[in-house]
């Protein structure tokens, strides 16, 4: 399938010209080459992060950049959470910064790190030039909603920071600072106080976040009448995925360059700036106090700039965007936690098929193992579909029938269950036998078990604790069922063939834990269920606001009760990748014990 792309000008990576003495550009126009290091940090691995930063610095210098930006808390990884409560962790990051600063030669760098002042911590950006830290900006707006918990650790900064490089005045901000229209960005840029607004960020992904971010950056550039240079972190960290998608916008809101999404890369932009100071604009900042640094121009100012070349940036559609987030999140969770292989229970259903396809894209078919565990209730079609999926994906498959285990459990429990009818207990027993077998393989082989439950099921508790919920990582935990179908169809379309068997996509969903079982025996159709769940979970709507969505009030109330009463299950399940505006876990935190009735 032919990939769509847009083209954007970017600097080449030439051999640097012989260094000359720095020169002063005419005040009428200054040519500035900025580099954005869209890097993938590892939380707590200072050496890895410092090595990545050094590599990016060298590349930026070789490419003739005058200034290079690194993401928010690039040195520690984001979010470091309660590692910030460990004094040695904070000290280690500061010591690494001081060592790293010595390698910043021939370029100006802005690097995110944790700064300690006496007994308090700041989320800070270090301004580095000439081999030393020459200034620091402290984040002024600390997010404390959704997945963010920065006020638990940091104190807000109270001083705006600008620096002047060859007559160009630049304002420094960090992530949330730029999202508030009247925040630090406005104060540092307003009334012609800055030519360029820099923002280093670690902004996590969810579906549609990239578009919202682009619109916000455009608004700020127009509002502040300044270039906006925005660098974002990329990579997976537990439940979060950072998509990169760094941006440089001109004062009229047009984009000079974009970074690719979900990929590490160096991004360059050539800015032609007429410093506002040449027009007699005021340099006095309104509101918060301001500190201004005058930074010596790096020697690269004297080097001839290489000609820009065409650079391809792939524009992702909404479904591919989610797919790329799931692939990156799975790859980084495994890689950063030391797992080389994954094992997945294949039921013949669409959820396990999608999970397997994502795993293969993330770590390669040779590192994925599928396991079928047929019971007397498993259909021939489901077994055949699992085998077809394994062939299509090129993965190894193991068969572990559970009939004998079911009979053994029945025998053990026969006396205790005497006189009691068959019910959901026996159904859950099958799932728990399977969970035990999967964890046995995990322990023996050091394989990571990827669970296969989707958001719709996890929301209403249509899953078995210690059964199909048993595992190390829940790839599609935040993916509603209707998106599962969308993603599966997209994978087949992108591959140009049916990686996921057509029968798997078209068959009616079933847990196959009893004869002729269908999901609709217990749940409304997913097309209706997912609408109610989206409004209730992601928008916190009440019962009255959920009327008119195709379900009776009685059914809506039943669904809401199922969601709330399943909180204890979700607390004990594995982490999964956030791709909706409000995911279970970091985003949505309800008490297990409560008597509130919506």
Here the CATH topology of the largest domain equals Nitrilase/N-carbamoyl-D-aminoacid amidohydrolase
General shape: elongated
Largest β-sheet summary: 7 strands, mixed
User: Which consecutive residue ranges, at least 5 long each, have pLDDT under 50?
Assistant: 1-26, 278-283
Mean pLDDT: 89
Helix segment tally: 16
Total domain count: 2
CATH class of the largest domain: Alpha Beta
CA gyration radius, whole angstroms: 27 Å
Structural class: alpha/beta
Shape-level CATH architecture of the largest domain: 4-Layer Sandwich
- Tally of strands: 22
Fraction of residues in helix: 25-40%
- In percent terms, what proportion of residues is strand? 15-25%
Structure description:
- The structure is a single chain.
- By secondary structure, the chain is of the alpha/beta class.
- The protein folds into 2 domains: 6-13 and 31-313, 4-Layer Sandwich (Nitrilase/N-carbamoyl-D-aminoacid amidohydrolase), CATH 3.60.110; 318-519, Rossmann fold (3-Layer(aba) Sandwich), CATH 3.40.50.
- It has helices at residues 46-62, 87-101, 176-179, 184-189, 209-224, 318-336, 350-363, 380-393, 403-413, 424-445, 455-460, 481-495, 502-506, 526-538, 553-565, 567-571; strands at residues 6-11, 30-38, 67-69, 108-117, 120-129, 132-138, 160-165, 168-174, 196-201, 227-232, 234-237, 240-243, 247-249, 255-258, 265-273, 290-295, 308-313, 342-345, 368-372, 396-399, 448-451, 473-474.
- The strands form 5 sheets. The protein has a 7-stranded mixed beta sheet. A 6-stranded mixed beta sheet has the order 6-5-4-3-2-15, with helices on one face.
- A hairpin with a 5-residue loop joins β13 (247-249) and β14 (255-258).
- α6 crosses α12 and α7 packs across α12.
- The model is unreliable at 1-26 and 278-283 (pLDDT under 50).
């Amino acid at each position: 399938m032919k990939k769509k792309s847009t083209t954007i000008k970017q600097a080449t990576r030439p051999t640097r010209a012989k260094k000359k003495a720095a020169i002063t550009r005419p005040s009428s126009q200054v040519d500035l080459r900025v580099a954005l290091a869209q890097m993938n940090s590892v939380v707590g691995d200072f050496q890895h992060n410092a090595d990545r930063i050094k590599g990016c610095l060298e590349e930026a210098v070789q490419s003739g950049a005058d200034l290079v930006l690194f993401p928010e808390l690039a040195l520690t990884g984001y979010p470091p959470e309660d590692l910030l409560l460990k004094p040695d962790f904070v000290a280690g990051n500061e010591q690494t910064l001081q060592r790293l600063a010595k390698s910043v030669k021939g370029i100006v760098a802005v690097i995110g790190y944790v700064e300690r002042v006496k007994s308090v911590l700041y989320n800070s950006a270090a301004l580095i030039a000439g081999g030393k830290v020459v200034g620091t900006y402290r984040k002024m707006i600390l997010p404390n909603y959704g997945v963010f918990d920065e006020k638990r650790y940091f104190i807000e900064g109270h001083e705006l920071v600008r620096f002047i490089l060859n007559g160009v005045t630049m304002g420094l901000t960090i992530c949330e600072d730029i999202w508030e229209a009247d925040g630090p960005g406005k104060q540092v840029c307003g009334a012609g106080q800055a030519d360029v607004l820099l923002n280093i960020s670690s902004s996590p992904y969810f579906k549609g976040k990239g578009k919202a971010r682009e619109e916000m950056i455009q608004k700020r550039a127009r509002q502040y009448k300044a270039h906006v240079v925005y660098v974002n972190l990329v990579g997976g960290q537990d439940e979060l995925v950072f998509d990169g998608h760094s941006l440089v916008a001109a004062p009229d809101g047009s984009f000079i360059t974009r970074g690719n999404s979900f990929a590490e890369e160096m991004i360059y932009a050539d800015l032609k700036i007429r410093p506002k100071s040449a027009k007699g604009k005021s340099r006095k900042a309104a509101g918060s106090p301001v500190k201004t640094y005058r930074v010596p121009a790096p020697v690269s100012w004297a080097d001839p700039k290489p000609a820009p070349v065409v650079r391809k940036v792939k524009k992702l559609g909404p479904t591919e965007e989610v797919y790329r987030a799931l692939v990156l999140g799975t790859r980084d969770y495994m890689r950063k936690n030391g797992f080389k292989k994954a094992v997945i229970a294949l039921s013949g259903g669409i959820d396990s098929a999608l999970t397997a396809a994502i795993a293969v894209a993330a770590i390669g078919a040779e590192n994925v193992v599928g396991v079928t565990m047929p019971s007397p209730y498993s259909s021939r079609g489901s077994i055949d579909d699992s085998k077809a999926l394994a062939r299509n994906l090129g993965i190894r498959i193991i068969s572990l029938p559970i009939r004998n285990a079911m009979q053994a459990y029945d025998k053990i429990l026969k006396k205790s269950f005497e006189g009691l009818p068959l019910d959901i207990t026996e159904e859950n027993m099958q799932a728990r036998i399977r969970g035990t077998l999967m964890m046995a393989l995990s322990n023996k082989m050091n394989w990571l078990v990827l669970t296969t439950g989707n958001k719709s099921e996890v929301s209403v508790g249509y899953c078995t604790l210690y059964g199909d919920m048993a595992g190390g990582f829940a790839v599609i935990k935040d993916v509603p069922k209707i998106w599962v179908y969308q993603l599966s169809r997209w994978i087949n379309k992108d591959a140009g063939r049916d990686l996921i068997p057509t029968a798997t996509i078209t068959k009616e969903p079933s847990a196959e834990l009893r004869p002729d079982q269908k999901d609709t025996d217990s749940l409304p159709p997913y097309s209706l269920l997912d609408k109610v769940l989206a409004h209730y979970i992601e928008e916190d709507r009440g019962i009255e606001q959920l009327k008119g969505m195709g379900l009776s009030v009685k059914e809506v109330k039943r669904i809401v009760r199922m969601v709330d009463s399943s909180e204890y299950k979700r607390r004990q399940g594995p982490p999964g990748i956030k791709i909706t505006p409000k995911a279970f876990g970091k985003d949505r935190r309800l008490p297990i014990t409560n008597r509130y009735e919506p």
